[in-house]
Structures are given as structure tokens and as C-alpha cells.
Design brief:
- Two copies of one chain form a homodimer.
- In chain A, strands 1, 2, 3, 4, 5, 6, 7, 8, 9 and 10 form a ten-stranded mixed beta sheet that branches.
- The first copy, chain A, has two domains: about 90 residues, 2-Layer Sandwich (Alpha-Beta Plaits); about 140 residues, Pseudouridine synthase I, catalytic domain, C-terminal subdomain (Alpha-Beta Plaits).
- Chain A starts with a strand and ends with a strand.
- Chain A is of the alpha+beta class.
- Chain A has five helices and ten strands.
- At the A-B interface, helix 2 and strand 4 of A face helix 2 and strand 4 of B.
Chain lengths: ~250, ~250
């Protein structure tokens, strides 16, 4: 058995999310496992770096799997792309260290949240952006973002009902840039709680509109209270941009 | 009555094309006229720079219209964008010289044809590109493109059944560029015959694949025979990129 690492891009619009649920195949994981199992002639399981919610996209999701095959990495990639639907693409397959596991190996993930800051629809990108007609103060959003960096308990930025595991995460970087009428938020961290990126994006948007002050970030981190944070920004504008491993 | 010039972007996927047909509103022109008529309280007709076929997109289609209104140009634009569907956007409205007419005033049009030159789907752009897995020889395509420039009878590059009007057109420029796995063809001319850009794109693709030689362009121009040209490349990868007027 060899261990493989694959990189995947997908348009999440049609799917219930990354994770396979019993007996359904409206998941991205399910679609890929089905084709890989067909290639191998037996059931194959793949492990993603993490789940993405329904409607969330990926430019660089990573998954690992172990199979026995005579095919080269490129042949595996080509086989997958031949049978996968057009909204899922395997952009790379390579052999990985035996210890590598896409979910368990430590990584840095970058998410991208895209905002069309205009009252004019971006007709070609409309399914991948969130429309905010009011002018966003990017300077204020950047100030707020600076408070997010570092190791914190982010439970106030999550939709978790019951908290069993640690809710401490590290955010390495938050980059906010404007290009024309688009505002992009890139968030890089060692992991994210349920809905955490979307709630951070929603909070930053409210700060950009002037509905909240940048310092509200500090208050959410301090009080650990979801109610002090902003709304959960829509899934369709969120993309898992990159996953980087040391291994 | 004031004369206005508007610039429009649209995703043509859902539409039968630019031109309004009797009693149907699956045209882009129809959608815009309906909103403009509602704003004015009476029927308004708009004139596009030209028709685009069903499935063809536009980044910079131009149309003109005459109305009497107290609204500013920006207010007209905002009104239209408020009521137009998300796949049609009016990106600009301005007052124009009285003599300006989007179809009759002389202009230079640029079309863009987008090719995903890969066996890996471009998941986010898949509705706006044509997939060519075989490697394209861009150098050969550029050589072929050079033969297209200038004033020629392009009837061999059209799907016209009966020819009444002149089929002589001028192509000012053909630019072919590769960026990553995408190959883009920009064609600028004073006008284009029915299906002319798609047949030129199809011919250039066949040349890039090595199925035809660059000199076949000369043969089509000389023989004026459609059969010497390549296939009609799909509409979904074609975008009316820009329309420029002297006036």
C-alpha cells in the first residue's frame, strides 16, 4: 500500500459539503471515493484536511488515501478527472510520506472570503461572492483583523452548541485587500471551529460598514460570547484556499 | 429627450441571446427594456452594438436609448441594477452625443474566446471556457492569426445562408495569450459576420492541435468556402469584451 496526497478544487454550490454522510453522495468526499473505489475495484476511503460546509468552495483542499496500484500519480489524477463531475477537479496527486494524514498531520489552512463591494452585480463571479453595496472601510477592517492574530480561545466566534474539545486556535495571519470593487479576506490558521471563518467574516463586514468598532473583536475574545460577534456570513463566498503541511 | 449610452455585462448562459424576439423575454435586450420601460412609465427601445448569440456573454456590450427623465445617469444605472436579474449588470450609463447610436455609429469590437487547455476542469470558470485537453501550439495559432488581419471577405468564416449585404470586414488585431492552462484569443474588428468569431476560434484551435496548418486561413479567405475552415467553437466560451466608438 502506498500513501498518496491529493489536491482538490471544487465549486461547492451543488453539494451538501465535503463530508460523506451515510448512503448519500451529495458530498465531495463521496464523489471522489466513488471514482477511486471504481478504479481500485474495492472500497477506498479518503481523509480530507477538514470538512467544508455545504456551499463552501475549495481551491486547494487536500486529502490523503492509501491504495495499491500500478498507476502513476498522473494516471491516478487523470482517471479521477475523467470520471468526476465538472465542478470537482483533482489538480494534483503525489506520493506522500507514510506518516502523512491530511487531517491528523499539522497544517496551516488559508480561507478566502470574497465580497463584491458594489451595488453592481459581478455577473461572472456572482456565485462566489457576497454582495455588500455599502462602502466598506478597509482600514477599520484591517485594524480589527490585527486583534485576531495569535493564540486565542475563539469559542465566541463559533456556532458550537456543546463544547467538549479545546476551542483554542492560532490565527497566523489575516490579510484584507481591495481590488477594484472586490474586497478579499484571507485568514490563515492552524484550524478553525465550526462556522468560525464565516462569523469572523461577518464581524469584519459589520466593522467595515461602521456598525461595529474594531475593538469588538477584543470583546468577543474576552467574553467568549457569540452574541458580541457579527452575523454568520453566507457560505457561497467562502473558499478553502490552501492547506500547507510541514511533512 | 436625451440620448444615453449604457455599458452592460451579462452571463449569457440562461438567455437566447441579446436580441428581443416577439413576446418573449428570454433575451438580454428584453430584460433591460422591461426595466427601463417600467422606470419611464412607457415603452422604451434600446439599440445594442450588435446581437450576441444564445449562450454568449458580454463584459462590455454597449447600447443606446433616448428618454426624458429627471434622474441622473447614476440613478438610472442604480434603478436598472436594482431590478435586473443577477446575471445582467449595467456597469455604466452616461449622456451621449445626439448623433450617437450604438449599432449605427462606427466602432471597434473586441471579442474574447477562452480555452481551458488542460484535462483538469477549471471548476470556477467552467461555464465560460471551452476545454481542449490536447496541448495547443500557441506559436502556430499566432502565425495563423497574422493572416486574418486587414480587410478581407470573411464569408468563408461565416454561417450565412444567403448573402445579400457585404461580407467584407476589417480585423484590426488578433491577440493570443497563454496564462497558466488558459489560452485566450482576443479578436478586434469593425464588425463580424454571423458565427464569424466562433468559426475563427474553431479554426485556430484546430491549427493549435496540429490538425490544420496556419496557411489554411489563407485558403479560406481565397476560396471563400466555409468547408475549408474549422468547426464552430461553442458559444459558452465567447465574450463580447469591449466596444469602442470614436463618437
Amino acid at each position: 500500500m502506498k500513501n498518496y496526497k491529493m489536491t482538490i478544487a471544487y465549486d461547492g454550490t451543488r453539494y451538501q459539503g465535503w463530508q460523506r454522510l451515510k448512503d448519500t453522495d451529495k458530498s465531495i468526499q463521496g464523489k471522489i471515493e466513488d471514482v477511486l473505489s471504481r478504479m481500485c475495484g474495492h472500497k477506498v476511503e479518503i481523509h480530507g484536511s477538514g470538512r467544508t460546509d455545504g456551499g463552501v468552495h475549495a481551491k486547494g483542499q487536500v486529502a490523503s488515501f492509501k491504495i495499491q496500484t500500478d498507476k502513476s500519480c498522473q494516471e491516478i489524477r487523470d482517471y479521477l478527472n475523467e470520471y468526476l463531475p465538472e465542478d470537482i477537479a483533482v489538480t494534483a496527486v503525489c506520493e506522500a510520506d507514510d506518516r502523512f494524514h491530511a487531517r491528523l498531520t499539522r497544517c496551516r489552512k488559508t480561507y478566502l472570503y470574497r465580497i463584491n463591494n458594489s451595488n453592481i452585480s459581478n455577473v461572472f463571479e456572482r456565485k462566489y461572492v457576497y454582495n455588500v453595496p455599502e462602502e466598506l472601510r478597509v482600514d477599520k477592517m484591517k485594524k480589527a483583523a490585527s486583534y485576531l492574530k495569535g493564540e486565542h480561545d475563539f469559542v465566541g466566534f463559533s456556532s458550537l452548541k456543546k463544547v467538549k474539545k479545546s476551542t483554542i486556535r492560532t490565527i497566523y495571519d489575516v490579510k484584507i485587500e481591495r481590488e477594484g470593487s472586490e474586497v478579499r479576506i484571507y485568514i490563515t490558521g492552524d484550524g478553525f471551529l465550526y462556522n468560525m471563518v464565516r462569523i469572523i467574516a461577518g464581524t469584519l463586514i459589520e466593522i467595515g460598514k461602521g456598525e461595529k468598532e474594531p475593538e469588538c473583536i477584543l470583546k468577543v475574545l474576552e467574553t467568549k460570547n457569540r452574541e458580541n460577534a457579527g452575523f454568520t456570513a453566507p457560505a457561497q463566498a467562502l473558499t478553502l484556499y490552501e492547506v500547507r503541511y510541514d511533512l
